[in-house]
Every structure is written in C-alpha cells, then in structure tokens.
Amino acid sequence: MAGNFTSGGSYFYVSNSRFCGLIELAIEVGDHIALPPQKTYVERLREFHGGIWPGIGLNLEEQFSELGERKFWSTVFATLAWDYFDRSRGDQSQRGWQVAMIAQCYTLSCMLTQLVNQVEHPWEPNPQPVDDRPGPFRFKSLP
User: Fold this and answer.
1) β-sheet bridge partners, residue 13
2) I need a surface site. Which of 51, 99, 117, 125 has the fewest CB within 10 A?
C-alpha cells in the first residue's frame, strides 16, 4: 500500500512511511515559520496526521481549502525542497534518498502553487529560512 497526494487530475504515490514523514516535516517547518494567524493551518495538519493510516490519501484541495493556507503550505514544501537540496537537512552520510525527497517536496509545492494560480496569477512560493543561513531568495547583506 502507498499514500497519495491528489489535486484535481494530478496525483502521486509515495510509501506509507514517506507519506507520514512528509506530513511530519511539513508540520515541523510550518510550525517554525508560521505567523500567529497561520498556526491554525499547522494545527489542522497536525490533527490530520493524528488520523493517518496505511494507504490514506491527502486531497490538497480539500485539506487546504483557503487561498492563504495553500500559499502557506506551498511555501513550506518549497522550503523543505530547498533545505534538502542545500544539504542542510537530513542524514548526509547516505546519498541515495535526497533526489526523491527534493522531487516530492517540490512536486507538492508545485501542486499547491497551481491551485493558487487558478485564483491569483502569477504567484510563486518564496522559501523561508528555518535558521540564519541564506538560501534561495534569502540574501545576507555584506559587512
């Protein structure tokens, strides 16, 4: 069995453990970058996570029904994709898993971005720092 993420006619399947891991990582990063009004988004996903079973699916349109919520989670998954690409997250002694993780996080971000762009075009996520390191679109001023 596998978990799946769906949005309109788009979908992809991942193993049950990866499905659960993606949700857990999104909650972790979302909790870190959420502004006070966005904390409810994190709590709703945490509640969904509490009811996960093998083979469950996550319909992005239904789970993230508000425009602001879709923008928030698109940014969270873009941030995760960047952090794995930048090798600032995860066990770097193993090299076989990064490409799949980056692709899955990026795909989720793109699926959510597509939903946002149906209402507000053009919009794209801006990955947020989860620490003081610069990343894409995150520049430090020189001394």
Assistant:
1) 4
2) 51
Which tokens go with 120? 């507000």
| 60 touches 14 (CB < 8 A) | no
In this structure, what token pair is assigned to residue 135? 């990343």
50: helix, coil or strand? helix
Could you count the other beta carbons within 10 Å of the beta carbon of residue 100? 12
Task: Give the pTM.
Answer: 0.85
Per-residue pLDDT reduced to its tens digit, 2-13: 999 999 889 999
The arrangement of strands across the sheet holding 10-15 comes to: 10-15, 2-7, 57-59
Q: What is the pLDDT of residues 89-117, one digit of tens each?
A: 666 677 777 888 889 999 999 999 999 99
CA distances from 126 to 54, 71, 75, 76, 97 (A): 32, 10, 6, 9, 24
